[in-house]
Amino acid sequence: xxxxxxxxxxxxxxxxxxxxxxxxxxxESDANAMACATANADGVPSVRMVLLKGREGDGFVFYTNYxxxxxxxxxxxxxxxxxxxxxxxxxxxxxDGPVETVDAAAAxxxxxxxxxxSQVAAWASLQSQVLPERFDLEKRFAHFxxxxxxRPVPRPLHWSGYLVRAGRLEFWLDRPYRLHERIVFxxxxxxxxxxxxxx
Length: 199
Known about the structure:
This protein is α+β, with helices and mostly antiparallel strands and 199 residues long.
């Protein structure tokens, strides 16, 4: 594909995403880092960085604590927006869609692949709750580290994955004089509709 344009002659934006994502890994150390925006039941937004841990069909997967701010907001308003920004490539992808939880088997498999200390930390952290002293977290970590010493650390029921199903994807490519390329794919009754936007 010409580096100076984003073609509209594509039937599947997920294939295009995979091409851009593979290219990003060649030049970015954290190509899977993405901003994840959620909103509470009143529509008040919040955003943070998370890591993409897989793509399943039209879904983009990340993992977290259900009791975290984003987990509680998704529970109240099951929609999210994701943004990948690959600065070295001067490219950006935005993804909007409904959110659902991953199945338990997938969550168990991913949790089992994590480093043991990260597994213990999932038990130790009361994510997004007030932490009076740093030492309180360290004590909780030591407690669960000892509790599961010498045996596999099970996945906490409050820790799992979310899958954002893409209903809209926007591909952005930097061009001189701010005459950027913006192509939007939106879910249609069959396949995707595609349109170009002014930058």
